[in-house]
Amino acid sequence: MNARLALRGDLLDFAAAPAWGDTESAAVRYRPDHWLLVEGGRIAGVQREAPDASWQRVDHRGRLVLPGFVDAHVHAPQIDMIASYGAQLLDWLERYTFPAEARFADRAWAAAGAARFLDALLAHGTTAAVVFPTVHKVSAETLFAAAEARGMRVICGKVLMDRHAPEALRDDVAGAERDCLDLIARWHGRGRLAYAVTVRFAPTSSPAQLAMAGALCAADPTLYMQTHVAENRDEVRWVRELYPEARSYLDVYARAGLLHRRSVLAHGIWLDADDHAALAASGAVIAHSPSSNLFLGSGLFDWRALDAAGAAVAMASDVGGGTSLAMPRTLADAYKMQALRGERLSAWVALHAATRGAAHALGLAGEIGSFDTGCCADLCVWDWARGAVAERRHELAVGLHERVFAWLTLADERNLVSARVAGIERWRRADGPAAA
Ligand code: GUN
Ligand code: ZN
Q1: Neighbours of ion ligand 2 (CB under 5 A)
Q2: In a domain, 146, yes or no
Q3: Is the same domain home to 196 and 274?
Q4: Structural domains counted in the chain
Q5: What is the mean pLDDT of residues 348-354?
């Protein structure tokens, strides 16, 4: 690959966080028909005029160019049981999720699953992700290896679960600690990979296992932590029974040393104002998963309250509770969920939470989520409209917010033309233009 690459298109990213409700925002950086310069896999600049012949050019004129999406919470093995019928969280885990995850004990199965999953992420326009594999060490190893082969920014860790799960999916405190330490030594900080201490959720870890997980985080503050919190009302009741000493579900994690600035907690629907304040104070991020919350009937996330409290929110597909890896679909679901709450989610707040906002919350704003000079050139090219209805709507859109809002409401992975990771094209639609 030529070390100097220039892409022409309508460049859209964020220079700062947009305020809730603003459809006009100085945080939005829109540079229509500009050239994005990529050198050595990193963003080298943006300019209006065509670069000289030392740059290999790709002409995506009339197309939307965005930073690659960041999926803040997604389960790699669950593409095997996505779209499973008729259950809320706890029943859904037992009936569909756990049997699918049990198969990842096998190395060949896990390796094929990891490759299939990461290729699917790229084909949906997502270039970075915080990922749950399964309880099996091999499922984390194969995922890290597959991410490294694709050059992707992936945060992952072996799932911890030592109780309330089928035998084939249970570990124990000592064995799990050994596996974590070994995986951390081999993968954390290697290239674009980072390790997350991965507590499935409070019900499937004993207090001793939560304490072990907290000790791992305390020993190395560069480690991430990922888990689920307050997703479903039956789950919340169960956690209250299992941890009666905790003030709240979130407090179970806080007491174990699992709530910190590198914590990524999925859902956070059934939280109160004290929890919101604790999240903000800790610097942790909620991975908001509207597709999953609607599909599993979990509830309506109070994004506005978290925003007002100063807590970070990043977008997540939560596949296979969520029903699509496509971030535009997730953003459209987020809008509809806020509409049910009587709120209006702007295209800017939504898109920011899937790009620069997610990157910032993960401490990765210097690497992903924007077209800032020096960031990795993880980027995707999208058709503004696909099909007669979207094309008509696009033609009639007045102003940038209207156009982008219609895009995220009507687009899906079929709009994706090209996905690049550190400048290298990792996915291209059959009719997409090649470099010239
Ligand atoms: N809570 C515990 N495990 C899971 C899971 O796999 N998916 C979702 N959505 N919630 C969970
Ligand atoms: Zn999840």
Answers
A1: 266, 318
A2: yes
A3: yes
A4: 2
A5: 98
70-122: pLDDT as tens digits: 999 999 999 999 999 998 999 999 999 999 999 999 999 999 999 999 999 99
8 A C-beta contact, residue 408 and residue 66:
no
Same domain as 401, residue 277: no
* Side chain identity at residue 262, one-letter code: R
200 Cβ below 6 A of ligand 1: yes
Q: What is the DSSP string of 163-182?
A: SSS-GGG---HHHHHHHHHH
In tens, the pLDDT along 265-320 reads 999 999 999 999 999 999 999 999 999 999 999 999 999 999 999 999 999 999 99
**Residues 77 and 171 reside in one and the same domain:** yes
Instruction: Report the nearest-CA residue for atom 7 of ligand 1.
Output: 321
| Mean pLDDT of all residues in 31-41 | 98
Q: From the CA of 300, how far away is ligand 2's center (Å)?
A: 16
The structure tokens listed for 18 are 């947009």
Report the nearest atom of ligand 1 relative to the CA of 201. Answer: 2
At residue 435, the pLDDT reads 78
Regarding the beta carbon of 6 and ligand 1, being less than 6 Å apart is answered no
Residues of the domain holding 50 = 4-67+372-428
For residues 280 and 412, state if they share a domain. no
**Whose atoms come closest to the Cα of 230: which ligand?**
1
Query: Within 67-199, where are the H helices?
Result: 89-92, 98-102, 107-123, 137-150, 173-187
CA–centroid distance, residue 229 to ligand 2 (Å): 9
Residue pLDDT, tens place only, 392-423: 999 999 999 999 999 999 999 999 999 999 99
Kindly state if the Cβ of 66 falls inside 6 Å of ligand 1.
no
Alpha-carbon span 121 to 208, nearest angstrom: 35
Question: 405: domain CATH number?
Answer: 2.30.40.10
C-beta of 321 in contact with ligand 1 (< 6 A):
yes
- pTM for the model stands at 0.98
Report whether residue 267 contacts ligand 1, using a CB cutoff of 6 Å.
no
